[in-house]
Amino acid sequence: MEEMLACLRGWHPGLAFAELAALLPGAALQQETSERWIRVSGSEEKQRREALSLASGLQCFLRSGLVVSTKDCTPERFLNEMESYLKHHPVNGSVAVRAWKQGSKLPGWSLSTLSGRLGGLLHDSGCSINLESPDHVLALISDGPSSAIACGWMEGDGKAAFSNGERRAGERPFFKPVSLDPMLARLAVNLAAGPLGRGPVVDPMTGTGGFVIEASLSGRPSRGIDIHSEMVQGAQANLVWAHEGEAPAHAQVVRGDATRLAESLPEDWLGNVAGFVLDPPYGRNSHGSMAADHLLESCLQSAREVAHPQGGFVLILPIYPLQEHTTLPLSFNQNIALLNGEWSDVLTVIERCGWQPQSAHVERVHRSLSRLILHARCAPQD
Prior knowledge:
Rossmann fold; 27% strand; nine-stranded mixed beta sheet; VC0802-like; seven-stranded mixed beta sheet; single chain
């Protein structure tokens, strides 16, 4: 299998890395020079195409992508290396070069000039240039923060942002201020459930239905559950709206108890749920301390009882901002100040309910609030 270079979007590279690992569970991932570039080995094209169609944090793949440090290289040397790359990676059909930058510009490097020179190399090698609808695109990406440049034949269209503008939370017919952005909701679904075909997705406290919308739009069987009739009706309306006025057959929202999930799920889902996504209510809607709250623990226990043996869940909790902003995974031993309860107590509850924490990331909401995104999987049973 050919090695690929995954290019992540800039919203949250750390979470995007975790999402990619969940969608390509059999692949080996290694960080490159830039936090947005990941070496991927052991993946199949079909798996990568699926990941591109599902992920909120993945931009494209580059076939055996060439990465050079602009501190140790000149544009002429880079072009020489690209001439060798093109000889060893020929393509059939029309071609074009597409360039973009991440962060600041690279001193002494002009992407437009390099693009033109690369186009000349392609023309001289006999390739047919088609700038409108090429069969193959040679991507040229500069990364200011790491002073590096990458180039290679691209898989995917390289769109700069997850396509969610038409369904942002504020545009839904039923909206609450605490609704998650579709980008984070989709990432949480992918992180919890992994590739398609593993099983359904369940949101035990669905609220306005953001998780169910993203799970259903990605083609996963999904169910949102809420104990409040207003939320059930509103979330179902949002689900229909997201599917352009038609209720999807593979997803729905029902009234039920998060602590007795088996009662709200089809019989053939029991023991087969691939992923749970949970953004518990807080603030005025919370029930006090999250760590001490019996509701959270009972929900996690109930989820474990109906989960697939390799199932996962993502739990999102409000926290006070960290002193230093980071996109790297947090240490479970790190001092994290939850808005409700103690971090160590939450970890204890999770493990007591039969789950094994995998990673934790933080996303900044505003100056006085951040979100903790915790990913866990079913712990092996004796």
